[in-house]
Write a structure and sequence with these properties.
The structure is a single chain. 81% of the residues lie in helices and 0% in strands. It is mostly helical. Helix 1 crosses helix 2. The radius of gyration is 18 Å and the shape is elongated.
Length: 72
């Protein structure tokens, strides 16, 4: 969950920089892009849920394939 939280936040700040460049807005002092906190929290929460979900889904999917090959 922790890597998903920080990874999602970092990706979201990258998206915020791209959106800010397209909107031609000037970021406030000390922030890399406009609306950084909004993008950061939304991306972090998405990563917090998405990364562990994908890992569990992939582990279950891989486990089922192993069981089927053992039966043959």
């Amino acid at each position: 969950m922790i890597p998903g939280f920080f990874g999602g936040g970092m990706i979201a700040v990258g998206v915020a920089k791209i959106v800010g460049a397209l909107r031609r807005c000037t970021p406030p002092d000390g922030f890399p892009a406009c609306d950084t906190p909004t993008y950061l929290w939304v991306g972090a929460l998405i990563g917090l849920v998405l990364l562990p979900s994908v890992v569990v889904w992939r582990l279950r999917r891989g486990d089922g394939a192993t069981r089927n090959s053992e039966r043959s």
